[in-house]
Amino acid sequence: MSDTGTSRFANLFSPGGIGDVALGNRAVVAPMTRISAGPGGLATDEMAAYYAEYARGGFGLVITEGTYIDEARSQGYVDQPGIANDAQRDSWKRVVDVVHAEGVPIFMQLLHAGALIQHNDYADGAVAPSAVEPVGEMAPHYKGHGKFPIPREITRQEMKDIAARFGAAAVRAIDAGFDGVEIHGANGYLADQFLTDYTNARDDEYGGPTARRVRYHIEIVAAVKQSLDGRAPFGVRISETKVNDLAHSWAGGVDDAKTIFGAVGEAGPSYIHVNAHRGFEPVFGSGKSLARLAREAAPRDVGIVACGKLNDPSLAEALLEDGTADAAAIAKGALADPHWPRKIARDESPVAFDPEMLRPYATLENVRRWKEGRGLRDAARVGQ
Ligand SMILES: Cc1cc2nc3c(=O)[nH]c(=O)nc-3n(C[C@H](O)[C@H](O)[C@H](O)COP(=O)(O)O)c2cc1C
Predict the structure, then answer these.
(1) Which atom of ligand 1 is nearest to the CA of 311?
(2) Which of 47, 191, 200, 203 is deepest in the core (most CB within 10 A)?
(3) Phi first, then psi: what are they for 79, rounded to 5°?
(4) Number of neighbouring beta carbons within 10 Å of residue 279
(5) Residue nearest to atom 2 of ligand 1 (CA)
(6) Contact 5/350 with Cβ under 8 angstroms?
(7) Bond prior to 149 in cis (omega within 30° of 0)
């Protein structure tokens, strides 16, 4: 491409890779829950069309919405898709095929909700590191209402089983044709509940200091690594914030970051996906972004994907240029305009995100309606 955006954002538009998966550029679609699956947690044709649009729009990699891993307590949301059985695996093949038809790789994000269950088709009650009621309330845009129930403390056997099921789900995803998987270790779900001081009151080797609270991440990474056995790359997502606690910050600051990113990195994922409100902003008064702290703490061969308001391409470019990150993930900006990369490459303005896209519900149907409404508004403006 000879467009001006590609030269101004030369790093963003340079080819990259995660493991042996080649990326045409460094712009990644961040995982976004869309609560639009069919009955039985199956991926639908509408979902395939939705994901294909990002590939057509020029993204170098697509990461799916958080997808539940088992037919037990991993599902957190109504109409969430799963990768827990063969029927679900097969339903994703069409999604993979249409994205691949555009020459773009796709990873699946694997999720266990832990205490943050708003809806589950398979089991009653939630499990979590400790029987602590989650802060905040269920998310209305994911069709939840009221307080979360108090979870039951998970047993050691259940922890082992769930780690193994992350591994089995990873294999199912690769069997469906996905190019890689991402363990959801962030945003307040099960693994992050172990990491978080106030949701983990354990007095065994999984509780107490940060080095112990990150142990379950390491065990899930080990299980996925063993199950995939080198067949495909995989990452782990990490954040300070949670869907039900947007202000949370690690009490140990830089030391916590070193411990967490060091331990997770040493466990051997292909990449760490660092999610922050503003992925470029210094944290803990350190002068460094969370992604930079991850880069410095993890072994050099572990890729870093940064996320958080990187839809401003100059911010994404700066993180890529100074070597903080290997790729920049974009969520709301991508949702608003799946053709964000093509437009940035041509120096065109992408459609801006509007919170109405997620109101009342964060569904595919809602975005479609929003776009139709926008079309009408545009037509009305032209007619003025
Ligand atoms: C509608 C919506 C759904 C999301 N679902 C997920 C998810 O399933 N898994 C996840 O790790 N993050 C999820 N996120 C968080 C985004 O991946 C991203 O970290 C966050 O929106 C910040 O990036 P942004 O500033 O580019 O929007 C979601 C965000 C939005 C807006």
Answers:
(1) 26
(2) 191
(3) 55, 25
(4) 24
(5) 32
(6) no
(7) no
Q: Which of 243, 332, 335, 351 to mutate to test the pocket of ligand 1 (most atoms within 8 A of CB)?
A: 332
**Cβ atoms of residues 143 and 361 within 8 Å:** yes
Per-residue pLDDT of the chain (384 residues; tens, 9 = 90+): 445 999 999 999 999 999 999 999 999 999 999 999 999 999 999 999 999 999 999 999 999 999 999 999 999 999 999 999 999 999 999 999 999 999 999 999 999 999 999 999 999 999 999 999 999 999 999 999 999 999 999 999 999 999 999 999 999 999 999 999 999 999 999 999 999 999 999 999 999 999 999 999 999 999 999 999 999 999 999 999 999 999 999 999 999 999 999 999 999 999 999 999 999 999 999 999 999 999 999 999 999 999 999 999 999 999 999 999 999 999 999 999 999 999 999 999 999 999 999 999 999 999 999 999 887 777 776 654
Ramachandran bin of 271, using left for φ above 0, alpha for ψ from -120 to 50, beta for the remaining angles: beta
| C-alpha–C-alpha distance, residues 343 and 311, integer Å | 12
DSSP3 helix / strand / coil % (the chain, rounded to 5)? 40, 15, 45
Asked whether the beta carbons of 238 and 274 are under 8 A apart, the reply is yes
What's the predicted TM-score (pTM) here?
Answer: 0.97
Residue 225 in tokens: 């690594």
- Annotation marks residue 189 as catalytic: yes
Domains observed in the chain = 4-353 (3.20.20.70)
First to last CA, the chain: 37
Residues 305/306/307/308 CA torsion (nearest 10 deg): 180
Tell me, letter by letter, the H, E, C secondary structure of 155-195: CHHHHHHHHHHHHHHHHHHHHHCCCEEEEECCECCHHHHHH
